[in-house]
Amino acid sequence: MSEPVRTPDVAAGTPPVIQIKGLWTQFDDLVVHRDLHLEVSAGEVVSLVGGSGSGKTTLMRQMLGLETPTRGSVRIFGIPLKGSSARTLKKIRRRWGVLFQHGALYSALSVFDNIALALRELRVFDEGFIRDLVMLKLDMVGIERHHARKMPADLSGGMVKRIALARALVLEPELVFLDEPTAGLDPDRSESFVRLIEALHSQLGFTVVMVTHDLDTLVSLSDKVAVLAEQRVLVYGPLETVVRKDHPFIHNFFLGNRGLRALSAAPDPLFGPALTGARR
Ligand SMILES: Nc1ncnc2c1ncn2[C@@H]1O[C@H](COP(=O)(O)OP(=O)(O)O)[C@@H](O)[C@H]1O
Ligand SMILES: [Mg+2]
C-alpha cells in the first residue's frame, strides 16, 4: 500500500500491535511451528503466505486466542493472551475485527442485524443510534442502505464480503484480521474489494494481518510479507526483499508464470529490479 497511515509505535513507547515470540505448535508428532517469531507494528498491512499445511490458519487462530500454542507467547497490543483474565480478553477482542473466509455472516440474521450485533452486545447504544451507525457502515463499504433488510442468502458473493467487512469494522478496530479476503470473487470484484480495503486502511489507519493465496491481493495491499515455511517465518519484509530469497516455495509462489504477471502489473518500479535480481 503506498502511504499507509502510521500511528506512533516504538518511538512513542507503544508496544507492537502483535508480538509473537518463541512460538511452538505441535499436534502429536506433527510440529507445525518451531520457535516462530513475528512482530507487526501499528498501521502496517502484513500478509501471511505459505504452502498448504504450513500453519497459516493455526497461527491466525492463535493470534485471535481461539487456539493456544504448545509453547511461546502471543501478545496483542502488548497484552499476553495466555494468562489474561476473561475480562481482559473480552476488552482486547473489542479492539480487533475479523473477516472470516467461511461463515462471514450469520445466515439467520439480516444484513442489518449482522452489522448491529456487536453494537447491541455493548449494551450502551439505543436502537436509533445503532440504526444510524449501521447505515453509515453500509455507506462506507459501498452497499446501498435498502439492502439492510435482506438475508445473506439473497446477496452476491461480493456483497457478502463488503457487508462482512462492515461488520468487522463496526467497533472501529485498531487491528483487522482478513482470512483470504478475495477468495471466491471474480477478478473484477476482487480488484474492487482490494481497493475498498486499501481506501479504508488509509482513511482509518488500522493494522491488517491477512492470510491470502491471491498474489494480486497481496501485491496491492501488503507493506510486508511473512513467508511461513520450515515451521517458522522464513523471511519477513517488504515484497521486494521477500522475492529475493532463494527458496522453492518463494520461487514457485512469486515467480511462477502467474506470479510474474501480478508482479509486473504492480505500479511500484521497485519490483522491476527485485525480479531481475531474483532471477539471476
Ligand atoms: N487441531 C488440529 N489437530 C491436528 N492437526 C492439526 C490441527 N489443526 C491443524 N492441524 C495440522 O497442522 C498443519 C497446519 O494446518 P493449518 O494451520 O490449517 O495450515 P494452512 O492454513 O497453512 O494450510 C496441517 O498439517 C494440519 O493438518
Ligand atoms: Mg489455512
End-to-end separation = 27 Å
Helix fraction by DSSP (H/I, runs of at least 4): 25-40%
Topology order in helix (H) and strand (E) letters: EEEHEEHEHHHEHEHEEHHHH
Strand proportion, as a percent range, falls in 15-25%
Radius of gyration: 19 Å
Overall mean pLDDT stands at: 89
Largest sheet: 6 strands, mixed
How many helices does DSSP assign? 11
Instruction: Note the overall shape.
Output: globular
* Beta strand count: 10
Structural class: alpha/beta
Biggest sheet: strand arrangement: 6-7-8-3-9-10
Bound molecules: adenosine-5'-diphosphate, magnesium ion
Low-confidence stretches: 269-280
Short summary of the structure?
With 280 residues, the protein is an alpha/beta fold. It has eleven helices and ten strands.
Q: What can you tell me about this protein's structure?
A:
Helix content is 39%, strand content 22%. It is built from 11 helices and 10 strands. α4 packs across α5 (157-168) and α9 (248-255) packs across α10 (257-264). The protein is an alpha/beta fold and 280 residues long. The chain has helices at 56-63, 86-93, 111-122, 127-140, 157-168, 187-204, 215-221, 239-242, 248-255, 257-264, 271-279; strands spanning 18-27, 30-40, 45-50, 71-76, 79-80, 96-99, 175-179, 207-211, 224-229, 232-237. It binds adenosine-5'-diphosphate (ADP) and magnesium ion. The site of adenosine-5'-diphosphate has 11 residues, from β2 and α1. Residues 27, 30, 32, 50, 52-58 line the site of adenosine-5'-diphosphate.
